[in-house]
Design brief:
single chain, alpha+beta, Serine Threonine Protein Phosphatase 5, Tetratricopeptide repeat, three-stranded antiparallel β-sheet, 9 helices
């Protein structure tokens, strides 16, 4: 009986221990992200790669857009833990996102070369792991598009992704209000159409009373397909960033982090699919 009680006490204490470290602070996500980035930079400077990896995991669990520097730090961690294929991809992503003005631009380029040399020095072990990882990602992506094709009863991946995006945009249009009146035209309403290599986004705004209409044509050729997003509880809104300028807001919807994440995923897959047809 005593051992059972002790075991129960241990289980409760262990659960509380895990709960404490699952969320160390009550800061809003954007401030918690900044705190974790400072901690990550400190562990990288100390060359404590295991603790740095824990900080990266904590950052990935936050529902907020990642700072560009996270790709560089993540690449460093994977590089020093001998995961060269993954490190190379992260350094490449940092170079693309940060550009020549990035703080670690030159260092990232040098590390891409170093990671590539490490991969080539042990091609059987390390390249095969990379190929398997790419294949798993491809299968996951194909499964996502396949499920949308079944949902919308179409054989076209472009049509399936477009229908999914328009459905999400229609049901989550931005109003700036906690309460939505379904029969009242209010806020911002978007609709998407697709040509051979362009996304045509129509925006109808009721923000200033009478509707205003504008259209934005986005050529996907050469774009980074990975769409970034963010949310603000104070603005009661989430938004996608423009893939042609990832510092500029592009599409604004009511505050729903799951919806904006799904929109970002669908737009990313759509751009990637269109780029393959060019």
């Amino acid at each position: 009986m005593s051992s059972t009680v002790n075991m129960c006490r241990f289980s409760v204490l262990f659960f509380l221990f895990l709960s404490f470290f699952a969320k160390a602070t009550d800061l809003p996500p954007e401030h918690e992200s900044a705190r974790l980035m400072l901690s990550l930079a400190s562990y990288v400077e100390q060359k404590n790669w295991r603790k740095a990896e824990l900080q990266i995991k904590a950052l990935s669990d936050l529902k907020t857009s990642s700072p560009t520097e996270l790709y560089y730090f993540s690449g460093l961690v994977h590089f020093h833990l001998n995961r060269y294929v993954k490190a190379q991809k992260l350094f490449e992503r940092y170079v693309i996102e940060a550009g020549k003005g990035g703080k670690y631009y030159s260092s990232a380029l040098q590390l891409i070369t170093a990671a590539d040399e490490e991969v080539k020095s042990s091609p059987v072990e390390k390249v095969d792991v990379g190929v398997q990882s790419i294949e798993r990602i491809k299968q996951k992506s194909d499964g996502y598009i396949k499920s949308l094709k079944a949902l919308y009863l179409t054989n076209s991946p472009i049509d399936a992704l477009s229908l999914q995006i328009n459905s999400l945009l229609a049901s989550n249009s931005y109003t700036g209000s906690r309460l939505k009146k379904t029969k009242q035209k209010k806020g911002i309403i978007y609709s998407l159409s697709v040509t051979s290599n362009s996304l045509m986004l129509q925006e109808k705004s009721y923000i200033k009373g009478l509707p205003t209409l504008k259209a934005n044509n986005l050529n996907v050729n050469g774009l980074d397909p990975f769409i970034k997003y963010d949310c603000s509880k104070t603005e009661l809104a989430c938004w996608l960033y423009d893939p042609a300028n990832n510092h500029q807001r592009w599409i604004k919807i009511d505050h729903d982090e799951m919806v904006v994440k799904e929109l970002a995923k669908a737009f990313t897959k759509l751009i990637q699919t269109l780029q393959k047809t060019i």
